[in-house]
Amino acid sequence: MSRGSGRQAGPRAGSPAAPRVDAARLAAYDVLVAVREQDAYANLVMPRLLRERDLGGRDAAFVTELVGGTLRGRGTYDAVIDHLTGRAPDPGVRDALRLGAHQLLAMRVPDHAAVGSSVELVRTRVGHKPAGFVNAVLRRLAARDLDGWMRELDASQAVRTSHPDWVVVELARALGRPEELEALLAADNERPTVTLVARPGLSTVEELGGTPLPVSPLAVELASGDPGAVPAVREGRAGVQDAGSQLVALALSRAALVGRDERWLDLCAGPGGKAALLAALATGSGARLLAHERQPHRAVLVRQALRATEGDVVVGDGTRPAWRPDSFDRVLVDAPCSGLGALRRRPESRWRRRAEDLDALVPLQRALLASALESVRPGGVVVYATCSPVVEETAGVVRDVLAGRGDVRLERAEPLLPEVTDAASAHLPGAVQLWPHRHGTDAMFVAVLRRDA
């Protein structure tokens, strides 16, 4: 997040003849407001807004950097803003100040363009009254670079790396290697690349273009461009999916089974990325996937994700399933979680979540894993996964559930994922814990459990 390391501004940002607030900055501001007011996810709101406003090319790239960089750096920028203002600005004004701070402290936008466009942005979206205040604050902010402000504030590790204090504590505990914590927090703040998955039997890595990734045999990285412009993605034969999520599905499909292998279950299928990959893998193995989702609007997304492959989608409560016990041969529980393993792609999660959220999430995770173990037949396999490395959500859940069952054993997940090394969980021997700074993936947790035959 040092100045001069960001993306170049679009052509409108630095041109003296351009308006001081443009469509790209207005779009970025509106995404931030939606994230704050509607609990929206930027990676879902932004593509729709870009289409609606006909913003593409360099403008779209500029919006993406403004939104993602501002959300990732929010904690750092707020510390500087609060130091300069001495009071809490109104939420709409703070959003504009954050955008201005990101341009001044982490991008190559000229000072006059960052300050002037932010002032005009406030006039356009908030009103004339706070414009002078924003002008004064950003002019003072521009007097130092980011390192200078961190020294001025004697900033803590949490402020420097733009993570809430409790998140730093939980990540450090989960990591188990104090010497790697700074690298992990830095990796959370890196701009994520676009990773595609080639769904087996429907598309190939070669068809997708881009650069193959060694971490998954199905993954390619796009250096630039709109993934929706790739025909296989547009048609549902491929998708946008982090390589760590791909490995979760591959682990389930690779586990050895004795006897029947016909029915697979994704217990928590929304929004559908893992379900689509599992459906393709199941079809290739002569099996069929049932994708189960509790929320109807997310079930719609699952159906859309499965449009190019075979599989069934149902809506229901995963803790009280409608099917008979012992119905499935393979079951995935990609449990609802804090999402602290995906902070690169969903940086707003770090500001949205609270430590007390674990009080509700962990009992739900236990109940879903228990339900999955009832749903799988004796001899069948359950993969428990989260996009969080937090110990209570990962090793804690598996240990608690195993303690109550004598017919289930934990199997080693590492042999199922030979693509990754140095991935052993520090808290549950046999489980896998991926990390962005080690593996270039989200911090996915994977545990493989088998019911005794």
UniProtKB/TrEMBL annotation:
Keywords: Methyltransferase, RNA-binding, S-adenosyl-L-methionine, Transferase. The active site is at residue 387. GO terms for molecular function: RNA binding; RNA methyltransferase activity. S-adenosyl-L-methionine binds at residues 268-274, 293, 317, 334. GO terms for biological process: regulation of DNA-templated transcription; RNA methylation. Residues 169-452 form the SAM-dependent MTase RsmB/NOP-type domain. May act as RNA methyltransferase. Belongs to the class I-like SAM-binding methyltransferase superfamily. RsmB/NOP family. This is 16S rRNA (Cytosine967-C5)-methyltransferase. It comes from Nocardioides scoriae.
